[in-house]
Amino acid sequence: MKSSHRFPLRRQIVWGMRFFTILTSLAVGAALFTLSNQYVRANSLQAAEFNLRLVATSIETSLDSADALLNWASIDSTVRRYISQENINGTQTIAAYEAVQEKYYSSTLYSHILRFFITNENDRHLQFGPLNASAALNRTSIKQFLTKGYGMQFTTDPLLPGSPDCIALSQPVRCGKGTLHRGSTYLALDTAIITDPAAGYSLTDGSALYWEMGSRLWQIENGSLTEIENPLREVDYTLRTGSNNGVTEQTAWQGKVRLDGQKYYVVKVTLNGRSAALVQLLPANTFLLHYGVYLWLITLGIAIIWGLSFLMQHWLEWVITRPVEALQKRIETVGSGSFAPDRTVEWNNELGDIGRGINQLAENVDSLMTRRVEDERRKQELEYRMLQNEVNPHFIYNTLNSIRWMATIQHAPGIAEMVTAFARLTKSISKGTQKLVPLQEELALLNDYFTIQQYRYGGDLEIEVSRIESETLCRDCMIPRFTLQPLVENAIFHGLEPKGGHGSVLLDISTDPDTGDVLLHITDDGVGMPPEQVAHLLDEPAEGAEKAEKFRHVGLWNVNRRIRYSFGEGYGLTIESEEDVGTEVTIRLPYQQKGDTHAADITGG
Question: Keywords for this entry (predicted)?
């Protein structure tokens, strides 16, 4: 039922967009006016910070590679053995040399390495680099490299001609869980690892780029580093970024300084985990404020907002309002009893998914109603058949009882006994609904069947339970109904009857000592079968088989399949036969007691 006071979706969208546009225009105008004076300055500082980060990242990559090389030299077992063992042979020395040589030549820093050595600070040194003009490395000269301690330093190489500037990194080699000092690793890199990444760095007039380590400052200019007096010690920096979700990044700083009466802005990016930074100095007069341009941009921005609002309103009309109205009409149609699918509401979006869902729901309701009518019809038909079937067995039992009493009166006990046995078999077939029965009930059915066959064949046929390992097996073991009778019937009709109907069928009941399974052996001394026939007895029967052969095949296959359906593929029949000797059918069953929950789950009983 529709409400008379509804606020339609289309009107909500129109007024909502207008209100949103007004608020947005006011907010954007105020924000643009407030930020106009700072825009150019902030943008320039951010650009400088970004460019510094790019250069810093390239330098960090080189320094990280240097750390990786030093770390490898500190922990490699071959190198540590060479450094730390008291007695070392030539093979071990060559192995250590080759290991370090391979790492040296494969390093990405190969072209920037001035000197790389590993030493025990006494008489063992492994040294690499362009050292043709270098003085010798010995116990005395080693101390010149390590006097300032470990870590990263800006220094010179005292053994190369001219003592060139370099970035030196060093760390100790320790053993005994890091407590026993065994030597040192040292790596000197030329200053190109700093100047090369900064080679294409763009600077405006009056700007300068610096490399800072500790309290020292070097100007980067024309591919070289020139140390100058540090004028930036008193800068009051403001932290820009520190860490992101707990992960440390390059730390950026911004500040102001006045040099020679002129105001400068300073942007500094600190390398991650190192006491070094890149610094750019920008003069304040670089940032020109163009108020007219900013006012024009504000006006243009507001106009664009209103235009976009108009377009957004019409777009929402097409993608939301009209599809929702179509879906509303479709629901009303289904509610009125029309379940035919409407493909026009199945758009290629989420609302189309709703449309497809409504169509599917309508089809399901229609199908459910059709099935409900059909189920009611089948239910009435089944109830009629059940009422009719209740009459038929009752008539058969009464007729058989009449025959039995007539035979008794006329002193024909054999006929009476056969009729009684047949009556019990018929009653078991018609009334039995359980899929699994105790083995003793199956043996009772087999005894009734034997009674009938014994009168047919006379004394020539013998069916006997030759051995029962334990009486509890007959009481507790569960077996699919009508398992033994088809197998005994096959033994009589296809094993004994072809040789004149005389012979014996023996039943042996025991357990498998290895698995605990129940084994039922049905053995006859009939005509037997060739191996090629036995191999296919448990296969699914073929359509074109002869009637007699198909009857035997279906019986064996049926019993085998019912056992496997009830207990699993590990159970069923196995058949062994020899021509002119006889046949043995073995039934393997689990020792499944009556009432077991697992049996109920498998059989559905």
Answer: Coiled coil, Kinase, Membrane, Phosphoprotein, Transferase, Transmembrane, Transmembrane helix
